[in-house]
Amino acid sequence: MGQALGRAAQWTSAKGGSGGKLEFTKLNEDLLNSVMSWVEGFGAKYPEESKLYFKSPLTWKTCLRPEKLTGGFTEK
After folding, report:
1. Per-residue pLDDT for 42 more than 80?
2. Domain map of the chain by residue range?
């Protein structure tokens, strides 16, 4: 989900070897509001799960390749 949001957001250009910064645009504001709405609703909908604390992000390795996915969607 984080990678998808990172691609959808609008960023400034990178300077001096550092990554770009999130621009203040209507699209980014809408994305952030959507994420906040989902997060706020999650706790009310799943109170027990919302108490879980992760010390590090969930990650996993996969050998699934994009070309193996089908379903009529297009990658931007």
Report:
1. yes
2. 2-68
